[in-house]
Amino acid sequence: MAENVLLRHEDVPDIHKLDVYLAHDGYAAARKALTTLKPEEVTAQVKESNLRGRGGAGFPAGVKWGFLPKDSDKPVYLCCNADESEPGTFKDRAIIEKNTHILLEGILITCYAINAHTAYIYIRGEFAYGAKCLERALAEAYDQGLFGKDIFGTGFDLEVYVHRGAGAYICGEETGLIESLEGKRAYPRIKPPFPAVYGLFGCPTIVNNVETLACVPSVIKNGPDWFRSIGPESGPGPKIYGVSGHVAKPGMFELPMGMPLREMIYDYAGGIKDGKQLKAVMPAGSSFPVLTPDEIDVHMDFDSMRAIGAFLGTAGIIVMDEDTCMVRALEIIDRFYHHESCGQCSPCREGTGWLHKLLVRLEEGNGKVEDIELIDRICTNMTGNTVCVLADAAAMPTQSYLTKFRDEFVAHVTQGGCPLKKVAVQPEAA
Amino acid sequence: MPTLVIDGQEVTVEDGLNVIQAAEQAGIEVPHYCYHPGLSISGNCRMCLVEIESMPKLQIGCNTRVSDGMVVKTTSERAKHAQAAVLEFLLINHPIDCPVCDQAGECKLQDYYMLYGAYKSEMQLEAKVQKGKVVDLGPEVVLDEERCILCARCTRFCDEITQTGELGIFERGDHSRISLFPGKKLDNPYSGNVVDVCPVGALTSKDFRFKSRVWYLEKTPSTCTRCATGCNIDIYHRQGEIFRFRPRQNPDVNEYWMCDEGRHWYKSFQQDSRIPTPLVRDGLSFAVASWDGAGTAAAQAVRRTQDEHGPEAVAAIVGAKATNEEAFLLSRLLREQIGSTQTAGLAWSPADAFHDDFLIHADKNPNTHGLKSLGLLNGGGEAEAVLSAAEQGQVKVLFILGADLVSAFGQERIDSALGETTVILLDTDYNGTTEYADIVMPIAAAVETDGTCTNQAGRVQRLSQAFPPPGEAKAGWEALALLSTHLDGPDSVSITDVFGELTHSVPAFTGLTYGKIGLLGAPLAGVGS
Question: CB 3.0-4.6 Å disulfide test: which of A64, A140, A190, B155 passes with A18?
Answer without folding.
Answer: A140
